[in-house]
């Protein structure tokens, strides 16, 4: 659908601004009362036409921390109507407004003036290097100490390969520093000795056999039959004496 070209009169009226809308300062301020905090709207600074029957009013912003910012309220009216309608309200930065610095990626935040003499630029982390699993097998610590510097060009010291899972069908590893030594053993203040139950049963099996032999000899002397025989001999001797 072709757009109708505005006439010269319409362009002149748009440049001058709609007098009804240009004078609607109070209506624009009322629209900010429901948006801005109490005391955040300052004086009216200007009003400029945006298009035919479309005007924007600008107010000073008094919010703490918003130096140079300003409130803008855009109003309009229908043809042959004196009723002012609020289109939108927003807070925008003006000339000399206090703005946050432009976002810079983390990798680019170190500037030349931040580096001292002898300091390089962006380098890779030497402590964390991905190593292909087929290039470095997991062997002994001595064998890995020989292989890691040959595979990892940025490894200054010998490290230990640690397996990590990247995908289900792929495996890799990372080199890291030597693990810290294990903590010393705990000291037992009560001097409790831990004994293997199997050893304890083996030690108890030997005394039981010797004790059974000794007790067997003792019980033989205490047999009632043997004790009765001397009593019988004593009775026969007594009869002979008679």
Automatic annotation (TrEMBL):
- According to UniProt, the name of this protein is DUF3027 domain-containing protein
**Stretches for region Disordered:** 171-242
Basic and acidic residues bias: start-end ranges: 171-180
Positions with biased composition (Low complexity): 226-242
Instruction: Supply the Pfam families for this chain.
Output: DUF3027 (PF11228)
Taxonomic lineage is: Bacteria, Bacillati, Actinomycetota, Actinomycetes, Micrococcales
Species: Kytococcus aerolatus
């Amino acid at each position: 659908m072709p757009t109708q070209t505005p006439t010269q009169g319409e362009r002149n009226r748009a440049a001058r601004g709609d007098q009804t809308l240009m004078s609607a300062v109070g209506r624009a301020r009322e629209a900010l009362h429901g948006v801005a905090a109490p005391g955040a709207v300052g004086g009216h600074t200007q009003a400029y036409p945006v298009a035919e029957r479309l005007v924007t009013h600008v107010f000073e912003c008094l919010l703490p921390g918003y130096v140079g910012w300003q409130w803008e309220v855009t109003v309009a009216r229908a043809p042959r109507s004196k009723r002012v309608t609020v289109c939108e309200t927003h807070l925008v930065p003006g000339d000399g407004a206090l703005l946050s610095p432009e976002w810079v990626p983390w990798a680019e935040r170190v500037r030349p003036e931040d580096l001292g003499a002898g300091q390089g630029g962006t380098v890779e982390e030497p402590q964390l290097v991905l190593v292909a699993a087929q290039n470095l097998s997991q062997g002994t610590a001595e064998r890995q100490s020989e292989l890691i510097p040959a595979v990892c060009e940025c490894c200054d010291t010998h490290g230990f390969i640690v397996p990590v899972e990247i995908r289900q069908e792929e495996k890799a590893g990372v080199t890291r520093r030597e693990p810290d030594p294990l903590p010393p053993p705990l000291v037992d203040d009560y001097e409790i000795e831990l004994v293997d139950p199997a050893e304890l049963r083996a030690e108890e099996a030997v005394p039981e056999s010797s004790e059974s032999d000794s007790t067997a000899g003792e019980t033989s002397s205490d047999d009632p039959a043997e004790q009765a025989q001397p009593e019988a001999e004593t009775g026969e001797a007594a009869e002979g004496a008679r």
